[in-house]
Amino acid sequence: MKAAVFKEIGKPLVIEDVKDPQINQGEILLKVLATGLCHGDLHIIFGDWQTDIDVRTPMILGHEIVGEVMNDGKKVKKGDIVLVYNAFGCNKCKYCKKGYPQYCENVKILGVQENGGFAEYVKVSSEENLVKAHGNPIELAPLADAGLTAYSSVKDIEEGSNVALLGTGAVSMIALQILKSKNVRTTVVGRNYFKLSKMLELGADKAIIVKNSYSDDLSSKIGREKFDYIIDYVGSNDTLKDVLWMLDRMGELRIVGEFGGEFTVPEQLMVLRGLGIRGFLYGTKKDLEELLNIFYEKKIKTLAVPYKLYEINNAINDLLSERIIGRAVIIP
Ligand SMILES: [Zn+2]
Ligand SMILES: [Zn+2]
């Protein structure tokens, strides 16, 4: 089969013929229909991960996968269209038992520790991780990671809250739409004029373009306004700096992006205003099922931008140079 193989840090992926995945008893073979390109893939390609993630080479990346089932399982049948819930946990630890395999110490992710979706076929070790879906696979693909992460980061935010979203990537764009469907006031903050315009079109109440630093530009534009939640979909030194000062009493900073930023925490401000800080990684399988329903109700668009597998390095360059408004989706 054709696949885009990650061979060396910092180098383009190599499109080549590789052996088809061989499945054993209990495993499912998927014909890949579409796989989203995530900033996480770029972090792997450029060797950015500082903690917890170790990627072997050669590896087929691509963790946001929609496929067609090629062999009957117990719950899925040949021909079913499925999204991959891409956190394969040990099923024994406390995180797995609570339904949060993404935090399992032995978690496996297709496209990170095992071969993923930038190929014609992918092997799935457990059908428990497949969620049946219907519709256009290109539009479905971003739900499997960007959409799920967006949903888990905002699902419990109450109607009437005032929320700032930092960053204008696909996760932020989908989160915005979920918040708008719940009547939440939103301010989006980013550096890219075109992406901010798109977010206004998607219903953002206010867009703030960053020219200097996130905190300076945000604080100068909002005056005395404070947020119940600030959700950082970037996670850089720049987005995190001084951000806690813009939270209202009992407000929460949610960190989703993984650009490796660090920041100092004004301890007394935290205590006196009762602030919280929380990280969000991916979501649960139940979240993915709930998200699919929101998608079927047409409350969100996934903003897929399709590329062919042989164009994947162009997609990577376009993502790097901020030319993609929405989610690049790779079609084998
Ligand atoms: Zn991802
Ligand atoms: Zn586990």
UniProtKB/TrEMBL annotation:
Alcohol dehydrogenase-like C-terminal domain segment(s): 170-294
Keyword hit for NADP: yes
Gene3D superfamilies (alphabetical): Medium-chain alcohol dehydrogenases, catalytic domain, NAD(P)-binding Rossmann-like Domain
Cofactor requirements of the protein: Zn(2+)
Source species, domain of life: Archaea
Matching Pfam families: ADH_N, ADH_zinc_N
Family: Belongs to the zinc-containing alcohol dehydrogenase family.
UniProt keyword annotations, A-Z: Carbohydrate metabolism, Metal-binding, NADP, Oxidoreductase, Zinc
Protein name: Alcohol dehydrogenase
Domain Alcohol dehydrogenase-like N-terminal: 25-132
One GO BP annotation of this record: protein tetramerization
Oxidoreductase keyword on record: yes
Gene Ontology molecular function: adenyl nucleotide binding; anion binding; oxidoreductase activity; zinc ion binding
InterPro entries (alphabetical): ADH-like_C, ADH-like_N, ADH_Zn_CS, GroES-like_sf, NAD(P)-bd_dom_sf, Zn_alcohol_dh
